[in-house]
Structures are given as C-alpha cells and as structure tokens.
Amino acid sequence: MFGTSHHLPPRDATPIAASACNRHVGGRSYDKANAVSAKTADNEATDWAAVMVRIRDERDETAFVEVFRHFAPRIKGFLMRSGADSALAEECVQEVMATVWQKAALFDPSRASVATWIFTIARNRRIDVLRRQKRPEPEDLPWGPEAEPGQEDWLSLQQESEHLGEAIASLPAKQRDLIEKAYFGELSHSEIAEVTGLPLGTIKSRIRLALERLRHAMDRT
Amino acid sequence: MTPIKHHLTDDLIMGYSAGTLPEAVNLIVATHVSLCDRCRAAVEAQDAVGGAVLDRQTADMVVSDACLQGALSLIRGTVPDPAPRPIRVPSDPVAPAPLMDYIGGSLDAVKWRPIGMGVKQAILNTSPEATARLLYIPAGTAMPDHGHRGLELTLVLKGAFRDEEGYFGRGDIEIADTDLNHTPVADVSEDCICLAVTDAPLRLKGLARLAQPFLKI
Question: Which domains does chain B carry?
C-alpha cells in the first residue's frame, strides 16, 4: 500500500518528508508537494514516522539502524539518569529497540511522535526492570489499514510535538529541570503536583480527534 | 461511551506518564483511561512531554557496537507483528482489559470475602506501596462511614453510588484525600462493583474500627 521509493537518501540530502507521501489511505493517494510544504524545508529534521513505516511495511533493517542510531543513545541516557548502570541500560536499550521493531504496527502517528512512542516503551521497561513491577496499560484501541490516520492528522500531530519540544526547551532552566526530574523518577508524588499545568491543550485536542475517528471506525466494523 | 463526569486529576495523569506511581494506582488509572477518552487524550498528551524529555537527552552518550549487534540479532528472523484491525474487541462489560489481568481473566474467578452488611471485597495482588481491592456493594447498601490517612481512589465498574461529593456511575472516579469523611451508598437500581485503591489504611469510625484488623481494610 505504500510506494516503492523508500530507500531514503542520507539525512542531509533531499527533504526526507517526501518519503512519507506515497501513502495511500482509504484508497486515496496523497500528494507529494503538499507534504513537503507542510513539513517546511528543514533538512535537519528526519521524518521518523516515515522511517517507522519502512520498518512496519518493509521490515527494512536499514531503517531500524537509523532509528537505533538516533534513539539508542537517548534511551541509554534516560535509563542511566533513572538509576541504571551502563550495562543494564544497554541491555534495556536492546529490548526497547526490539519492541520498536516488533510492535511497529501499533505506532499511530496521529496520536504520538516516534520519540513519544519510544519514550513510553522505555518507561515501561524501566518500571519492569528497575522497580520490578508490572505496568498496567489501558485497553488497546487497535488501528489498522481501515482506520489509517489521514496525512493531515499525522503531520499536525508531529508538528505539535515539535512545538512542545521547543516550548520545553525555552522554559526557565529551573522549571525544565523539574520536569526532567519528574520523568527520571526523581520526584515524589507531592512534588509532581507542582510540575503539572504545562500548556498541553492543543496536542490534547489533536489526540482527542484521532481517538474519535478511531472509535467511529470501530463502530462501523 | 457513557458520559463520565468525574475524571483523573492532573497530578495522577502526570505521575502515570512519568511512571512513578505505585502499581495499584497505575492499575486504577489504566482502568479509568480504558473507559474515558478524555483522560486517554490527557495521558497521551502528557506522554508527549516524556517524548520531548527523551529527545532532549544528549546524543553523545556512547552506545557500544555490541549493543547494536545484539539488537539486530534480536530482530533478525522475526517479522513485525501485523497491523491490528480496528474491530471492536468484545471487551468485558464490567472489567476493562488492564483489570482482567489482575482477576484471573473473569469476574467469575474473583474470590470475594464478606466484610459485613452484604459488602464483599477481594484484594488484588500488586506491589505493597498501595492496595487495590474490588468492592461488591449490594444495591441500596451503605459502606461504613470512613476517613482516610492517605489517598483513596474509587472507580465505579457497575452500578453507581452516591456520597457527600455527588453521584458516581460507571467510569467515574472519586478521588478522596485526608480531608474527606464520606459514606458512600450504592444506588438502589443494581448492585455496585468498584475498584478501590488506598495508599494507607482507612480510618473507620465506630464498631467497624474494632473489626478492621480482621477485615484487612
């Protein structure tokens, strides 16, 4: 269902967003030009959602290595800040990355960026390994070809995630540190209450729309 | 979905996303989110903050080549799981999937223990920092009047109850802290089943207090 031109050029060549554009959703084919303009000509930013599609649909090992090279150091850093030593962190990195490969079809680009999705896998691994607890997860809302998100939903969610990253980067250092500490598991529950209240309204309503569409698709089947 | 009026608080959503809550609290959050798309969106939006924190981690952390080779050998020969079809899973009308894992796959498998006045409970197996229990309250019955040393979260799975804070139907979650003394009464229309989580023993009043050590509540 995807085009064939998925062997991506190196990062600094043509805008990589183009590779996401041969997507046919519900029988419609999306127009390349639109996606490129929506993504702006940012040669630095890799369209990770498109790379995930190559893993999902083509079992493309090169795509897997690309994701690994970008995210493995970050996952390792995240786990070490959360209290793992280097060896344990690398062991977890392997397992997290194997899950990324195995569960690629569960990644829904209209609800999460690739970084967000990988974060949830790494966090769950941390709870499992460092706290030795099970992590109850909400009931799945399965999605698949019949309910594939439209490309607009996909792009706007990815852009919203970028904006959120920029917003966090521009926070006063003290506040940003507090948020990072919360995610590294260094804050108590009462301290956590103080870091709520980030402006998440826009991204929340995007996700809400994606969920509504998914419910609608499920009701039709 | 039935309209849910009582939702998760921001600090619970944040704690669930950061992964710092006790297992029993994670269980009640995941169960509520299974029934409530508003809170599901809030949790997934909060996860986006975690994604941004992950992405901010320095890329100069060295990952050994052996790690990449190990990951490749884990995936080689395995094929990614196929895309799930968006077919409504025939989920249980009372217990959403995350709870199923804790009650042996069916409400019929729950080993209820009577705790007086027709009320029954079953304590679920979680890590010890907080306790999760299922409560079965016959229609029209009042729970013992009680206060809390810590947090008490109550999620309605079937039926409904009313207390000083309002009316709680399926999917609604009541978040009671140390300030609240309340007497939940099950709605007369049908028996009520709740998932309740406490992070400290309840403070019962009157006679029930004397029985507390035996009732494990």
Answer: 1-217 (2.60.120.10)
Instruction: Provide the pLDDT for residue A21.
Output: 34
Paired sense of beta strands B119-123 and B113-116, if any: antiparallel
Phi, psi (deg, nearest 5) at residue A70: -80, -45
A122 touches chain B (CB under 8 A): yes
User: Which pTM value belongs to this model?
Assistant: 0.85
What is the overall mean pLDDT for chain A? 79
Tell me, yes or no, if A11 comes closer than 8 A to chain B by beta carbon: no
Which helix (H) or strand (E) segment is B120 a member of?
Answer: strand B119-123
CA-CA distance, A54 to B21, in Å (whole number)? 35
**Any chain B CB within 8 A of the CB of A130?**
no
Shortest CA distance from A208: residue in chain B: B41
* Assigned token pair, B147: 């206060």
Give the model's pLDDT for residue B41: 97
- Please report residues of B whose CB lies closer than 8 A to that of A139: 34, 89, 91, 96-98
- CA nearest to B168, candidates B119, B198, B135, B209: B135
For the segment B26-63, what is each residue's pLDDT rounded down to a tens digit?
A: 999 999 999 999 999 999 999 999 999 999 987 779 99
For chain B, what percent of residues have pLDDT higher than 70?
Answer: 86
In sequence order, the 6+-apart residues with CB closer than 8 A to the CB of A131 are B127
Contact B11 A196 (CB under 8 A): yes
The two tokens of residue B14 are 């944040």
**Mean pLDDT score of chain B:** 87
Structure tokens at B181: 């003394």
Q: Using the beta-carbon criterion (under 8 Å), do B41 and A204 form an inter-chain contact? A: yes
Residue in B140, B133, B138, B35 with CA at minimum distance from that of residue B93: B35
Neighbours of B203 (CB within 10 A): 15
- Is there a contact between B86 and A144 (Cβ–Cβ < 8 Å)? yes
Cα separation of A100 and A107, whole Å?
Answer: 9
Angle at A44 between CA A72 and CA A71, to 5 degrees: 10
Alpha carbon distance A173, A170 (integer Å): 8
Q: Are B194 and B141 in contact (CB under 8 A)?
A: no
| Contact criterion met (CB < 8 Å) for B18 and A183 | yes
A21-30, A83-92, B177-186, B187-196: range with lowest mean pLDDT: A21-30
